[in-house]
Amino acid sequence: MQRKIAIIGTGYVGLTAGICFAKMGYKVICVDKDKNMIQKLNEGIIPIYEPGLNEFLKKYRKNIEFTTDLKEAINKSEIIFVCVGTPSKKDGSIDMKYFRKAIEEIAKNMDNYRVIVNKSTVPVGTGDWTKEEIKKYYKGKFSVVSNPEFLSEGSALKDFLEPDRIVIGVEDKKTKEIMLDIYSSINAPKLITDVRSAELIKYVANAFLATKISFINEIANICERVGGDVKKVAEGIGLDKRIGKYFLRAGIGYGGSCFPKDIDGLAKIADHHRYNFKLLKAVSIVNEYQQIKFMKKIKKILKKVKGNTVCFWGLSFKPDTDDVRKSPAIEIIKKLQKENYKIQVYDPIAIENAKRELPFKNIKFCKSALKAAKGADVLALVTEWPEFLKINMKKVKNLMHHPYFLDGRNQFNPQKLKKLGFYYEGIGRR
Q1: Active site (annotated) includes residue 258
Q2: What are the angstrom distances between the C-alpha of 21 and each of 43, 102, 148, 189?
Q3: Do 128 and 248 belong to one domain?
Q4: pLDDT tens by residue, 23-80
Q5: I want to staple 107 with a disulfide (CB 3.0 to 4.6 A). Which of 119, 137, 184, 388 is the partner?
Q6: What CATH number is given to the structural domain containing 123?
Q7: In a shared domain, residues 163 and 261
Q8: Which of 51, 39, 48, 60 is nearest to 14 (CA)?
Q9: Rounded to the nearest 10 degrees, what angle do helices 97-109 and 126-135 cross at?
Q10: Which domain does 10 fall in, by range?
């Protein structure tokens, strides 16, 4: 049976899900209010950067269509995935206006049984609210499911099609069977749970991973004081099967659209239920401190050499994405530009997005890593793009005014750079 699926919202999650479902052989209709985006997608133009997504769209185009007509999408589908944005408010709580509007419009246009599947990251209890909201407009039968996404930018296709697990929060046997059938071609553990537990799992997973990052960054700061090497410390504890090696890479902190938002969101959920989640709040404080500490290292070098020019390699919050939201690089650059330092930046993919975040006269956007390094007093690597490891560092040294290298992601070999004449400093390394 060829399932018919509607995707509400064609952002990062919705577009990835829609294209992957099309690959799985389903008939998919993606709907979004952004007419310009829908026009581009109908022309075969992917508005985001994600490795492999463009090729998948071309290959499975016959199974997917794009429209701004929500009613058409609902009428053509039996299962509706809600993938709209749920950004943070200034106080860290989740802004639900797009989600609420989507549910209201879905309810107003339903004329038969539908399964409404939430993939947006929402506060616990949203499933209950969704049921009550739909009942205001539609009196027939329907089901509400929580099916959180666990996509990482740069590996979204693999994460969707070869996931560690699929979480399905349901309340009845019929809906459970429908959801298991949808994902039947994916060989992964499928956790069936209640809706509220499913709503929590995404938040908790990201909160735990962020905690590991902040923890190893704290250890890196101790290593700098006692003369240890955090890479070796991380390797040593990572070999313990109870701990594992992942997310134990010291650096200048996490960023992106998920970790900061989900950590704040979970803390606010706890506050709402009168629980002070002290550990999670400390994770955010440590993360902010890593960026401030790195900036102070830059300023200390500039003061020492009486220089004024900083080169930044990397602008996206991680490699293989053009996403600069909450990027540590962007946050550090914003602080430095206020003090009138001359800043030269390069990123393989994220330059255009970064320009919108950094509309300042004292920032020069360069077309190559070498051009960004020319005349710099200090070079700061802030995003671990693989291409940086392939650069002729001897040539880089000769282009720089002063050969100071700050490795914010511990990507380079300190001894090799020192032999080339660099003054090298990493994070938590001797």
Answers
A1: yes
A2: 19, 21, 15, 18
A3: no
A4: 999 999 999 999 999 999 999 999 889 999 999 999 999 999 999 999 999 999 999 9
A5: 137
A6: 3.40.50.720
A7: no
A8: 48
A9: 40
A10: 4-193
Q: Which two tokens mark 365?
A: 């956007």
Residues 282 and 353 in one domain: yes
Helix (H) or strand (E) segment spanning residue 232? helix 230-238
Q: Where would I find the H helices in 110-165? A: 126-135, 156-161
Q: Widest CA span of the chain, in angstroms?
A: 74
User: In this predicted model, what pLDDT tens digit does every residue of 178-214 receive, in sequence order?
Assistant: 999 999 999 999 999 999 999 999 999 999 999 999 9
Catalytic hit among 20, 30, 258, 311: 258
Closest CA to 199 of 123, 251, 250, 261: 123
pLDDT digits (tens, 9 = 90+) for 244-259: 999 999 999 999 989 9
8 Å CB contact between 319 and 349: no
Evaluate whether residue 219 is within a structural domain.
no
Choose one of 165, 193, 221: the last residue of a domain: 193
- Number of domains into which the chain is organized: 2
Give Cα separations from 381 to 65, 104, 142, 412 (angstroms).
41, 46, 51, 10
